[in-house]
């Protein structure tokens, strides 16, 4: 018997978002990690919002969960994120919205998000989540199967793979491989020496993914030191030009997550942190004297 294609509205809904999400869905584990981090940040939220009067703002817990989804699924704008929350039950479950809860206006979401960013809450939250080794293992192509690909590797592993592909004559194919995931996570930038030509290889990958896929980069070196890390200040400047265009830079303060209980045993130069500030570009010298009347400047001055 042929099924009916008629559509009828309903006055009530019995959809249980919790039951709609599979038990083995990778976002379930990530939700547990985020909830633990958000619970620890509750005093920070209270101090940030306690002195503010007026209408209730968007819950900071929901804001931060939505920001994670925006990064995981490479959603380019807040308007697209709100549209996705409107119809995607998985997104509603992860953020904490009920099936009948209205979605926020994209401009209101942006203003509330900026308040968190200025209050350094987002940086503390992401640092607490990403610092957990179990999170890194789950953010890989083997574990994250929610419809979008995620790939995790260190910079040394990435450059070794690209250099080997270049020697074997299939660099373009390898670059396409690293461009497929929606989110590429590159860890340990600046920890190990970069192989000769590694800066050019990394630039080709960053340039290929520019405005096409999201990236998360971790480094213990400030941006001003990237010329030394990659062995070429010109390549480092070109990298930062593309990476910082749409980036949110998070500087993690404090002791190492692994050595936080034994920081006093570490040498002072190891404990010191490089400031994460973009390199200052040298300004060309300004010509002295009056400008020539005919607009011609003699090459010898």
Low-confidence stretches: 273-279, 295-301
Number of β-strand runs: 3
Per DSSP, the total helix count is: 15
Q: Biggest β-sheet: count, sense, barrel?
A: 3 strands, parallel
The helix-strand sequence is HHHHHHHHHEHHEHEHHH
Helix content: 40-55%
Integer-rounded radius of gyration? 24 Å
Principal-axis shape: globular
How many domains, in number, for the residues?
2
For the record, give the distance between the C-alpha atoms at the N and C termini, rounded to a whole number.
Answer: 91 Å
Task: Characterise this structure.
The protein has about 300 residues and is mostly helical. The protein folds into two domains: about 20-135, no CATH class; about 150-255, 3-Layer(aba) Sandwich (Rossmann fold), CATH 3.40.50. Helices cover about 45% and strands about 5% of the residues. The protein contains 15 helices and three strands. Strand 2, helix 12 (about 200-210) and strand 3 form a beta-alpha-beta unit. Helix 4 packs across helix 7 (about 105-120) and helix 11 packs across helix 12. The longest helix is centred in the first third of the chain and has 15 residues, at about 25-40. The termini are far apart. The relative contact order is 0.08. Mean pLDDT is about 80; it is low at about 275-280 and about 295-300.
């Amino acid at each position: 018997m042929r099924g009916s294609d008629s559509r009828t509205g309903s006055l009530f809904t019995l959809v249980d978002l919790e039951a709609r999400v599979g038990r083995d869905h990778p976002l379930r584990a990530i939700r547990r990690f985020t909830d633990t981090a958000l619970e620890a940040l509750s005093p920070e939220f209270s101090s940030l919002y306690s002195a503010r009067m007026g209408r209730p703002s968007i819950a900071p817990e929901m804001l931060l969960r939505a920001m994670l989804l925006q990064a995981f699924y490479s959603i380019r704008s807040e308007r697209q994120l709100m549209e996705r929350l409107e119809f995607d039950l998985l997104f509603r479950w992860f953020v904490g919205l009920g099936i009948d809860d209205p979605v926020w206006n994209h401009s209101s979401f942006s203003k509330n998000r900026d308040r968190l960013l200025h209050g350094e809450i987002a940086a503390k939250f992401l640092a607490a989540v990403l610092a957990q080794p179990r999170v890194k293992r789950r953010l890989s192509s083997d574990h994250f199967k929610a419809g979008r690909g995620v790939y995790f590797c260190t910079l040394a592993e990435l450059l070794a793979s690209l250099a080997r592909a270049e020697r074997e004559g299939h660099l373009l194919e390898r670059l396409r491989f690293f461009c497929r995931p929606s989110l590429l996570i590159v860890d340990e930038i600046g920890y190990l020496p970069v192989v000769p030509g590694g800066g050019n290889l990394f630039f080709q990958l960053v340039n290929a993914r520019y405005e096409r896929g999201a990236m998360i980069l971790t480094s213990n070196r400030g941006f001003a030191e990237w010329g030394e890390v990659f062995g070429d200040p010109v390549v480092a400047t070109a990298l930062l030009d593309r990476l910082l265009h749409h980036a949110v830079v998070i500087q993690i303060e404090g002791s190492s997550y692994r050595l936080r209980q034994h920081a006093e045993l570490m040498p002072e130069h190891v404990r010191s942190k490089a400031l994460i500030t973009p390199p200052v570009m040298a300004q060309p010298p300004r010509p002295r004297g009056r400008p020539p009347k005919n607009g011609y400047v003699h090459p010898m001055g």
